[in-house]
């Protein structure tokens, strides 16, 4: 299906550009400090405290850091699933077994990603997660998330819906990325909570 001409896209593109420009000005010290704070806030979430399986991701570049959180979840005995990008932009999944289990993979001309090097569990593995941590660039006061535009997590959310799975959906962001309004399209779905270095904000829909 063509995405050209969808009403929300031009606004989304300009908002992505502005948000990425702010992220790209962050220093290494900024990234270290926010990563530690983000992990601390996320670990306080009841949805993560009671989760047996969490689908997460390895942050890259200037994204809010997830490494400390991944290791803390694993130390708790949580089964952490990490994505593997497929050629069609869908996601397969593998289990995180510590930093040594990650492989640096470059997909075409994009930024290299860190992916689990072990067994592939299939795209449907995410439906067993009790919580799904989503990357993003912004979230608004209704819980509508702005992604990077690749569509991978739109597929994940559609797969969860088809399976009748209802994990907690949590987006990890910087404080300035909680905004008044994100342009939305018919397929967009709200998240349940956003975690930033300064705290947690929940949204109104049922979890």
Brief description of this entry?
With 207 residues, the chain is α/β, with parallel strands linked by helices. The chain has five helices and twelve strands. The strands form three sheets. It has a seven-stranded mixed beta sheet with strand order 3-2-1-6-9-11-12.
What does the model show?
With 207 residues, this protein is an alpha/beta fold. The chain is 27% helix and 23% strand. It contains 5 helices and 12 strands. It has helices at 9-23, 28-43, 46-49, 67-75, 152-163, and strands spanning 53-55, 79-85, 91-95, 102-105, 113-116, 131-134, 138-140, 145-146, 168-172, 178-179, 193-196, 199-202. The chain has a 7-stranded mixed beta sheet. Strands 8-7-10 form a 3-stranded mixed beta sheet. A two-stranded antiparallel sheet has the order 4-5. Strand 2 and strand 3 (91-95) form a beta hairpin. Helix 2 packs parallel to helix 4. It starts with 8 loop residues before the first helix and ends in a 5-residue tail after the last strand.
Distance between the termini: 30 Å
- Unreliable sequence segments: 1-7
User: Pairing-aware structural class of the strands and helices?
Assistant: alpha/beta
- Strand residues, percent: 15-25%
Overall geometry: globular
Percent helix among the residues? 25-40%
The ordered H/E elements are HHHEHEEEEEEEHEEEE
Q: Helical region count?
A: 5
Largest sheet: 7 strands, mixed
Average pLDDT figure: 90
Helices, strands, pairings?
Blueprint: H1 9-23, H2 28-43, H3 46-49, E1 53-55, H4 67-75, E2 79-85, E3 91-95, E4 102-105, E5 113-116, E6 131-134, E7 138-140, E8 145-146, H5 152-163, E9 168-172, E10 178-179, E11 193-196, E12 199-202
Helix pairs in contact: 2-4
Protein name: 5-formyltetrahydrofolate cyclo-ligase
Keywords: ATP-binding, Ligase, Magnesium, Metal-binding, Nucleotide-binding
Catalytic activity: (6S)-5-formyl-5,6,7,8-tetrahydrofolate + ATP = (6R)-5,10-methenyltetrahydrofolate + ADP + phosphate
């Amino acid at each position: 299906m063509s995405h050209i001409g969808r009403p929300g896209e031009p606004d989304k593109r300009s908002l992505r550009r502005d948000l990425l420009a702010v992220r790209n000005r962050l220093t290494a010290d900024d990234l270290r400090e926010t990563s530690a704070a983000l992990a601390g806030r996320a670990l306080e979430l009841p949805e993560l405290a009671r989760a047996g399986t969490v689908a997460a991701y390895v942050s890259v570049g200037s994204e809010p850091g997830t490494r400390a959180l991944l290791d803390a979840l694993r130390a708790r005995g949580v089964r952490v699933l990490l994505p593997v990008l497929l050629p069609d932009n869908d996601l397969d999944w593998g289990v995180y077994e510590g930093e040594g289990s990650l492989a640096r993979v470059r997909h075409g001309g994009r930024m290299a990603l860190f992916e689990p090097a072990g067994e592939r569990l299939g795209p449907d593995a995410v439906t067993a997660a009790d919580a799904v941590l989503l990357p993003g660039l912004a979230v608004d006061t209704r819980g509508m998330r702005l992604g990077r535009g690749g569509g991978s997590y739109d597929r994940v959310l559609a797969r969860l819906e088809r399976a009748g799975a209802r994990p907690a959906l949590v987006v990890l962001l910087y404080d300035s990325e909680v905004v008044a309004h994100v342009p939305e399209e018919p397929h967009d779905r709200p998240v349940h909570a956003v975690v930033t270095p300064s705290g947690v904000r929940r949204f109104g829909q049922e979890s």
